[in-house]
Amino acid sequence: MSSSSTTPRRGEKATMRDALIAAAFRLFLERGYEQTTVDDIVALAGVGRRSFFRYFPSKEDVVFPDHERCLADMTAFLESGDGTEEPVGRVCDAARLVLRMYAENPTFSVQRYRLTKQVPGLRAYELSVVWRYERALADHLRRRLRGRRDGTLRADVIAAAVVAAHNNALRSWLRSDGRGDPEAAVDRALGYVRSAFGAGPAEPVEEDPEDVVVVVSRRGAPLWRVVQEIETTLAPRG
Fold it and tell me: In 10 A of CB 133, how many CB atoms?
């Protein structure tokens, strides 16, 4: 059998993939997630079992069909910068890519949110996906903050804050059944992150111990004598 007979064309791939997703969610809503099998999904979609696993490694993956693409887009976005962008603003912009993925299809996103709340296994799967987004942001920040005081710690804390702010706004939108402006809500939440961790006053520089001067004076010495000793000590050397 030739490869052309087993490998779908680009248009066929999108159509079959979408058909599998649509069939899966129809059954999940009608029967429940746990009660639906892969065989049930492929039967409703009118394709073979092998076709399902060509696109989705597991039943969980059909619930989150676009996260791999979104993670790749986020990574590419972070790597496309020239290194002059403000780091916190850059990772906030990267997080907005995830929001746009959800906002592309509000009905599907709301259905997935409701389903995920009901199935512990899906909640665990979602947490693993969120962790991968957070690691992508943290890895970028670690590179950008390398050499700064507590650079690694800052990178991890900022990445966690970005994800927490983004997800708080996103879930509020999903709980409202996709009503309102999700971008405005996420922008507001990320604004707190940028104000807390973004560009601000220069970070304090650790003092060189050699620049610390201790002046010892007799108790009761006149003030002018103490000042004179300080001035003498602080006078430029050489």
Answer: 23
Question: CATH 1.10.10.60 occupies which residues in the chain?
Answer: 3-59
Q: Which of 12, 49, 42 shows the shortest CA–CA distance to 24?
A: 42
Helix axes 151-175, 87-103, angle to 10 degrees: 30
pLDDT value at position 82? 85
Instruction: Give the separation between CA 63 and CA 43, rounded to whole angstroms.
Output: 17
Task: Indicate the CATH number for domain 64-197.
Answer: 1.10.357.10
In degrees, rounded to 5, the angle at the alpha carbon of residue 155 between the alpha carbons of residues 153 and 158 is: 105
pLDDT digit string, tens, across residues 126-143: 999 999 999 999 999 999
The 10 Å Cβ neighbour count of residue 227 is 12
pTM of the model: 0.75
DSSP secondary structure letters along 5-58: GTSPPHHHHHHHHHHHHHHHHHHHHHH-TTT--HHHHHHHHTS-HHHHHHH-SS
What φ, ψ does residue 40 adopt, rounded to 5°? -65, -40
pLDDT tens readout for residues 58-92: 999 999 999 999 999 999 999 998 888 999 999 99
CATH architecture, domain defined by 3-59 = Orthogonal Bundle (1.10)
d(CA 210, CA 44): 77
